[in-house]
Amino acid sequence: MTDAATSHMPTRRDPVLVWDIWVRLFHWALVVCIATAAVTGFVLGAPWITLHIASGLLAMALVAARIVWGFLGPTHARFRDFLRPPAEILSHLTGGDAGRHLGHNPAGGLMMLGLMAVVELLGIAGLTGLGGVLRTGPLLSLPYGIGEAGLELHEILAILLIVMILAHVAAAIFESRRSRENLVRSMVTGTKERRPGDHPGRNVVSRPRIALTVIALLAGLTVQVWQRDTGVPDGAPVAVLDEVFAEECTACHVAYHPSLLSGSEWQVIMANLDDHFVEDARLDDETNARITEWLVAHDASSAQTRPAHVFANARKDPTGRITETRAWDDLHENVAEETFLRAPIYSKLNCLACHADAETGWFSPFLIEIPKETSK
Amino acid sequence: MKYLLVLPFALLAYPAAAQSTSPADLLAQYSAEAGAEASAERGQALFMANHTGGKPDTPSCTTCHTTDPKATGQARTGKPVEPLAPSSNPERFTDVKFVEKWFGRNCNSVLGRDCTAAEKADVLAWLDSF
To answer: A197: burial class by Cβ within 10 Å (0-12, 13-18, 19+)?
Structure first.
C-alpha cells in the first residue's frame, strides 16, 4: 500500500489518494451494517434479531479492524493524522485554522473517535443484554439485572449514534459546500484534488502485513472467548414437564410453563379449576395437589428468563392471566389483533403457534415465527 | 329385561379392570346404570342443541367438537380437539376415568350440571353410530 501523496511531485489540480481502499471499504461496510442494525432494531423488532445481532457484531469487528489500521495504516488512516489536541480542535472550530486538511480535520477526527467508541460500546451493551436477559452469547452468566441495564444503555447509545451520524452527514455536506469539493465522492474514489496551502499530514508507510496479523490474532481471541461460556446458564427454567401436569393441563391449550407465573398466581388458578376462565377444568384433589406443588416449586422465582421476569410482576389481585399483563401487551404491540384470531393461530393463548419453544418457558426471540395464514 | 343381561357385564367392567374399556362396553354400562336403552337420536339432539344452563361461552357440545363427530374440532384456545367418533379416533371411549372426567367437565360447562347415565349412553350411542 503506497501513499500516493508521496509518489510524485504535486501540481495544483493533481488528484491525490487520501482514503486508501481499506478505509473506504470499512466506511461503506459500516454504513451497511449500521443501517441494517438500525432498521432491524428500531423498526422490525424481535423476529429479526438474528440479522440484528449479525450486523451489530460485524460493525464491532469492522471498527476493531479500523482501530488496528489507525495505528498501522497509511498517512490519513492513522489516528495520529486526525486526533489532535483540544487546542487545535478549538482553533479549527473558531476559524483560527486556515489550511485545508486532506484527511479528517481536527473536529471531524474527534467525531471519528466518538463514532468508533459509540459503536463498540453499543455492541458491548447489546451483548450484555443478550447474555443477562436472553441468556445466550458470551455473557450468558451475567445476572438478569445487569442484562436489563445493558439493554437500556443499548437503546440510549443507539439513539446517540443516530444523532451523531446525522451530525456527521450534515458536517460532510457543509464542508463539501464550504471547500467546494465532493467529500462523499472522495470516500468512494479515495482521491481529493490537491490545493496550495493544504495540511498534507505527516507521511507514514502503511504496514498491511502486521495489521493483518494483529487482526487475525484478535479474531482468534474473540472466537475463543465466545466459546468459553456456552451451554445451559444458571437459572434455566425447569426442562422436563411433570407428566401429570403435561397430561392434565394440555388438553385444552398448550402447556404454560410454570416459570411464566408466580407461585401465588398458580395457586389461584389451581384453586379455581371448576371455573377456569369460564370453563370447567376440575381435577380430583390428589391430582390437583400434585400439580400445584410442582407448579409452585418451578414458578417464576426459580428461573432467570425474560418471561419469568416480565410476566410474574406481583399483581395486587392475581388472576393467572399471562395475556392480560402489561408486559404481554407491550411485547406484542407489533402484532395485529386479527393475527391472533386467524388460522392456524386462533387465539392469543396459542403461544406455540408463533413461539416454537413456548413449552420450554424460554420464548427465545430467535425462534419467533408467525405462521402463514391457512385456509381453515 | 335386556338390562339384566348386561348387568353382570357392567359390574365386571366398571370398577374392576383398571380403567380400560371399549365404546360397546361403556355403552352397555351406562345403559345398565340408566336402566333404559340408549337412543342415538336423543344423543344427537342433546349434542347439537344450544343449551342455556351452562356457561355462556359454551352453549353447545358443538362449540368445541363441531357438528360432525368425524371432524377435528377446536377448543376456545385454538387447540385442535380430535374427532369424538370412535370410527375416526379409536382412542375414544377406551378409558373410563378419562371419559368420566370429560363428561363431568363438558356437561357442567354446557348444561350447568352433570349428565345423567342415560344422557351419556345416548350421546355415546350416537357417536358410535358413525
So the answer is: exposed
Measured CA to CA, the distance from residue A206 to residue A213 in angstroms comes to 14
Contact (Cβ atoms closer than 8 angstroms) between residue B79 and residue A253: yes
Taking CB atoms and an 8 Å cut-off, how many pairs form between chains A and B?
Answer: 48
ipTM above 0.90, yes or no: no
CA distance B9 to B6: 5
Which residue type does B62 have?
T
Burial class (CB in 10 A: 0-12, 13-18, 19+), B30: buried
pLDDT in tens, B42-79: 999 999 999 998 888 899 999 999 999 999 998 888 88
Fold classification of A13-228 is Fumarate Reductase Cytochrome B subunit (1.20.950)
d(CA B77, CA B75): 5
Domain limits of chain A? 13-228, 243-367
Convert the pLDDT of each residue in A119-169 to its tens digit: 999 999 999 999 999 988 888 889 999 999 999 999 999 999 999 999 999
Domains of chain B, residue spans: 23-127
Name which of B91, B101, B111 to mutate to probe chain A: the one with the most chain A Cβ atoms within 10 A of its Cβ. Answer: B101
CB contact under 8 A, B55 and A279: yes
The architecture in CATH of the region B23-127 reads: Orthogonal Bundle (1.10)
pTM for this prediction: 0.83
Q: For A277, which DSSP code? A: S
